[in-house]
């Protein structure tokens, strides 16, 4: 046959010969039995193979009688004209399909294990899957191959989510309650790179997930067809690989610390199933714990008697962790601010004590740290947060409200919509980003600079006359990643409505440029902490008085790109007061006498602070009020 003749012009018999749809003993032009014709995949067709087209798809039973499709005929003609290219393409596609399936089977869910050695192993799930596909009938095999590929792709997506969550939050992805955090991540991305950039990333992510689902399913189908055409060779290979796996497992053979005999996929599936079960069990147990509170029935008259008449401010500084004060790159600048701030406050008549708290979260999810600190419960996941904030467990801020001796307010620049949790926290009024009167630009995620939030607090609450002292919860957000652009400290009388920050924001650094280098990210993070600390210290200097009591702390460590792999979850906490009696009540805490906790300062779990604080400034639960406090 001439290579210039198109296949749709050939007689029916020659078309069948060109597409190799007829078995050898039915095809008058087929090769003799002692010289089997090679398939495009590189193997020899054997009498026990299923009928298949050269691209690996199976021929239907009625191929002989069917009128050939024009597109298929054109493709077959291309294969006839370019047999080497066709064979190379078929081989390449098969190899890529095998590589994709192997990578999905061996993909670790921990970024620390993303090494070449992880992919040089024998996956038992692949061996078992191949054995199963070999014995299934053709139709069932097709369905099973598609399902297996889809499930394998979904497991790979979960592995990638684990990797992302470990990098950002120091923990894996929880399939029960972490899905809403993907929306939070999209919002953060929009604040960091803009709406158009975030939309592009989201579309790309969706496309990649869909492509992974489709391509993995097609890859398994292709490999299953190849095994069916070469059933004897496939069975032998499967037996050899199975024997090798058993031998490697028995001998404990490893490659760069990774076992050659891998069962990582099945182990991860089991771990996810165990995680779901543990999560559901944890929900029930935590609900029981949250319902039991030693201070739950304590009358307001017996709470916080040692702070009556004081203006108490609880301030959370976003991402202010141990790394900020002890890392070789960031600590010099931050430590200098803390040392100078200690002296500045001392000159204004204040004293400070500081220690360490171990946060329930890491890298993000600040609300978990806030709720752990204020509730006295370990809130390390979203379900626990929902449970506790929907109940009536006594939060530290609500204890002030229960006394009736304080007006309780919240300054929440990070809240951009309704916040029903205000009831749980016992806040008489919450000033969110819409009520603080800000007319300036956003600084990436942060809706407004910390100095403006404190200025608004002074204008709206602290600087106005009240018939009661204030208890305030203030969230400072300028140190929220991506730490670019950053505001700068201004004279308090220049802050105004925030319009002055427009030129500062325009002159700031681009988050994309900052995040290209790890050292640059860490440097800008350190600067953001310096800014937040300077704003808070300056506020106390200018607007504090003899009744001011300030408790400030970090909510969690920054992400691993800044704090480093395997960083602790410790955050600094400090208590500042003008009245010496306030600090005398916590003398048995053995905190460091400065704003910067020393290396030997006590380290407590964050959920223990509430009870320690209530004990220090009021009687034990169940005891009577001391006569001196009545």
From TrEMBL:
Residue ranges with Polar residues bias: 1-10
Transmembrane segments: 88-107, 119-136, 143-166, 198-221, 233-256
Sequence segments annotated as region (Disordered): 1-79
Superkingdom of the organism of origin: Bacteria
Gene3D superfamilies, per database record: Alkaline Phosphatase, subunit A
Sorted UniProt keywords: Membrane, Transmembrane, Transmembrane helix
Stored InterPro entries: Alkaline_phosphatase_core_sf
Keyword rRNA-binding: no
Low complexity: compositionally biased ranges: 36-46
Listed name of the protein: Sulfatase
Organism the protein comes from: Streptomyces kronopolitis
